[in-house]
Hints:
The complex is a heterotrimer of chains A (about 290), B (about 280) and C (about 260). Chain A is mainly alpha-helical and about 290 residues long. Chain A is built from twelve helices and two strands, in the order ααββαααααααααα.
Amino acid sequence: MERHACNGWIERWQARLLGAATLLVATLVLTITLILVVGAAKFLQSRGWRIQVLLGAHWNPLAGHFEIGLFIVDTIIVTALAMALTLPFGLGVAVFGAYVAGWRERAALRWLLTIFAAVPSVAMGWWGLAVVVPSVRRIFGGPGFSLLAAGAVLAVMLLPTFSLLALEVLDKVPEDWHQASLALGASEDQNLLQMALKVSLPGLKTAFLSAVARAMGETVAVQMVIGGAVYGFHGVLGPGATLTTQILTDMAILPLGHPAHGVLDLMALILLVALMLLTTWAQRGDDRP
Amino acid sequence: MRRGRRWYAVSYGITLVALAALFWVVCLLAKDGLAGWHWSLLTRFPRELGSGGGIGPELVNTVSMVILAEGLSVPPGMAVAVWLTDYAPMASWVRWLTRVLIAFQSIPAIVIGLIVYQTFVDRLGWPLSVGTGTIALAVLNLPAVAVLGATVLGEVPGRLREGSLALGATRIQTVWHIVLPDALPALVDQLGYSWARLAGETAALIFTAGINVGPRWGWFQPGETLAVHFWYVRTEGVMPDWRSVAAATGLVLVLITGAAVAGGKLWAARILAKRGSGVKEV
Amino acid sequence: MNIRHLLVILGFLLYPAAGAAPRPSATITVAGATSLLPYARSVIQQWSEAHPSTRVALTGGGSVGGWYALRLGRADIALSDIPFSPGAAFAERPIGKMPVFLVVNSAAGISNLTMGAIRRVWRGQVRRWDQLGGGDIAVRLVVRQGGSGARHVVEARVGAPPPDVLQIVQLSNGAVVRTVSETPGAIGYVEGDRPWPGVVICRIDGRPYRRGGPWPLYALPRLYVSHAAGPAVWSLSRALASSQRKMAFGIVPVAQPGFGG
């Protein structure tokens, strides 16, 4: 009986302790969001809530011009380029790993991908400067420092993680289904395209969206190869700047207390909101059977 | 050979190309890094002008900051993970909390850098230092630990918990003696990833840990890490041997992250082997 | 978990945000022009050996960033290439003068530019180097981000490029040199008389730079420090303003007013 009471006491208190930890983390997350929202709101208010701030492309912080439309567009373009390159390669690797490779190759592939997935993004930026930027310049002309180079570097960076996630998803298709599909006379190709990939679609979507999230938020690998141009849009072969790289560039000249510091909060908040939307979208797919 | 396997052949080719690209990155780094390699690189101080600078302090900073940040973020993060899997009520706000944590798990590191810079450097007047950088890494890691921890704990079969509870164990006893030990290999595996991620972090540290090192280690000493030094030397360094210093720094960094991941995996495999639970792929 | 717990934890978390905690003493923060960072790093390293109890944190951020940091009380010493009016609260000390060089990629085939030619390049009127007798290759501008001292010096003389001129923005001298040396046809500017590797340093109006001699593009690096700063800060300021290491970093000493007494 005594033992029981003691257990009850422990049970109550550890539940509270764990709950408190959760509350702490939830508060931290909330605080971060609040700091950004308040900073962004103050900034937008000082600009009279003009939508021009989000749509315009005139960025010159020292002269008081804060329009971040260009960075939003560049972020979207770089992310789209990266995903367009990563998607076919990642799916190819995943299909090979899940259906083609023997178990030895497959174990080796997983090991390699795992190790590559841990290669820091700054190493990818280094490779981008050594290989991608000169290649883009040689093949397509232009200065080499470009949205395309940033997209290509990101694509290689995302490839291992996306392949691994997609491989897990394809792996979960039950063996029976393959057997059944093939027994019904489907060729391996038909089985792959019309059965395996199709039933894996929700999982692949989640993997895809998490890769999008990483592409959007990457900073140094992009900063090293994108060229940092803030004046006007120069096409995918020209230099540009994304939301993340511009935060890095201007963090020091817009410190807290500077009247326009909030524009950095606004840029961060846009990334955070986009991230929330992606997560919600990914989750919704997962909830459905 | 059955007919109609064209896409399998295509996937084979794609895999070769993809692996070639990835090997290209690492091999180029190894080639350039080993070109001017000298073991004393690992112990010497960096040099701004002359050649022959090392990465000793950066190495110490990287390892110490990662250990401290893991120490700060893993206990609360795991507490949240346990709460989410074994204690949370079935409520919509819990689903929302999970969703927010998942979003924060992939929050751009530069945003964390910005927040920590605002709060600790701008408001509290902390210097750009080991301490500020550690805080940034811990904040970056916390949601990831909670989300990945919850995923791993969620994969522990429910029947283990039910059995334990049915035998009269309390919930915390169940978690401590049944759930966590069962999930240990997967947790160790994730910890390896987490180490690698923090060791390779750059964006969150440029404006929190700084781009120089102090004469000795300390909480408020400047805390440039290997990743930041790699970035700094490659893009801005003006020492004559920048090429080999940058590549060697990068090589050491990649070796550290690779070792962290591989170490986690091997350790996890060893735990599984000891347990003798058959062939469970890690 | 009731609402009271929540408020206590919330308060605990917001406490740092309220800015109530003191900043750790015995740390000097130096912020400002990235062109001076290598020099500052080197001086600070030496100074720290003589003052082991004082920590020095060095951060870039550019001239403007450093000046803001000082004014907002977040830096003790600001390094700048751009003149600000220090007012009554701050002291200004010259560090010296540093030439700003135009550096060109060797593929451009250019080793001399007149001030007028530079102005035309900057305004986008020269788009290919053969217009100036160089190689048949496009001109690519490599510039610094806003707030940089070198950019201030150059644009004060030749004006800012119009928006349709393609510019690659880099965050430091080293990055500009690296980019110019690796990008065919690139031209950029760097601050400091140093052996910049891999690039052609242009003569201007036919004259090469001679240390301390007449030169059209000089930046005047200086440091700002609060009059109310403690002795350690002043000691470091003096070291930064008068270190013998200047010449190694291409900074030409100028007369040092104000440090006599």
